[in-house]
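Q: Trace token order:
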Amino acid sequence: MKVVKKMKRPKLKWILPLCIIVIIGIISFVIYRITQDENTQRIERIVNNIFSDINESDYRELSKAETDEYTDATQLPNWIKERFQNDMTDQGFSTLLETAAYNISVLGYVNEKEMKLENLEINLNDNGYEFEGQLHISDKQKESKTVEITLEGSAQVNEEGLVSYINIVNMGEIVEAIKS
């Protein structure tokens, strides 16, 4: 008769904690990526909306609001609030209004320019987000006249992912191109 020895089971006490750590790490990474994607989408919407064309109705609504000398966001035209307010903190929205970045669309309308933003890239860095893209400004009357400007800027978001600050570095160059 042969004696069968029982094999000792290896002690695997360390596997469960390791698996838990790995799973937590993966979940944290996925949450981080989702959060970054949401932040990037908000910044992208705001930047695109700054350069989105307006129509006659939007222009008239803004002209009426300016003659009424609006003093707070409740008196702003709806199209401005719809384009920016939901993606920004109150302070970020106030700053956007103070810098009148939304007026780029108005300036384009008044000067009969069409703006198209392409290849917008948004990257996270130590100080928030940086973005860059190609802005094409064309004259609606002279189809052959198109100016291409590399748009550069930065943005910051708060803990909830709302944009608290946005800056377009070469806004002066863009304004000059629209006016020309």
Remarks:
- The mean pLDDT is 79.
- The radius of gyration is 26 Å.
